[in-house]
Amino acid sequence: MLRRARPPLSGAPSWGRWWERLLLPAGVLTVLVAAVASCVTARVGPPGQARIATWNMCGVRQWNCEDTGDGPRKVRALEQLAGSDGVQAFLLQEVCAGDLATARAKLGKRWHSTFKTYVYRDAHGRDATVRCAAPGQGAAGIAILSSSPLSHIASAPTQQPSAGLRRGIVCATLTAHRLRVCNAHLSLPGSDRAHPGWELRDDQLKSLAGAADGHTVFGGDLNSAPPSTEGGSSWIWPRAMYGRYRECDQRSASSRAGRATLAVGHKVDYLFTALPRTDCSVRDTGASDHSALILQVRTG
Description:
alpha+beta, Deoxyribonuclease I, Chain A, 5 helices, 15 strands, globular
């Protein structure tokens, strides 16, 4: 995967009544500065709406992610997306368990997560958990990170390589919004080492769409071009996608395109829903070769 460097956003609070700072103990001043900075950067979404993001963090360094930044840089990007962009739930791919735990702790006690590891199955059917290369980062996988408690957590059954890297789909309910979310990371063509000619994404997309209902946001890194793109793989897309459900960046009923989310200029990250869409953004985090895709939906 290719990389690109991106500068982080920055901002600092302004202070009035300067003389009050001179009367405050240093520890109290530090707490107040942190609180004010939080108030300045936090974005409050409209009532009855939720903001969901999908982001491939490129956290597994041995997967050509060495030059996308270390764990702390990726955690800061999550904090910024939660603060400046008001993201209330993340669908994360290529995340390390250690980064997920750090992000959850930094975001605060009200944040919750669920994690599903990547597994490599060898030719003899033996499974091994994929580990992140950086020390102390633990397993690699996909995750849901939410500012409200998660319930009804489940993996959606889906076709996976008989030999090779097995990713998957995980779903959960955001209790504060009574909203179901499903996060998927699909197999690349040729992922099945035993059957390199097999196409798995069509079955995986059907499983993903089948796990959704009218009150679901679902998507992730689908490792697929939009069905409008030439190249002969548009047949993998279920009819319900772009039909019954609409994609975050879908401009009209007939549209099958969207802004690029990968550094090389392709769209591979998606968010679908049947709920009313009120905003769609693509954010360059500076900490991955994928941009974050942010969808705002009306839930009430």
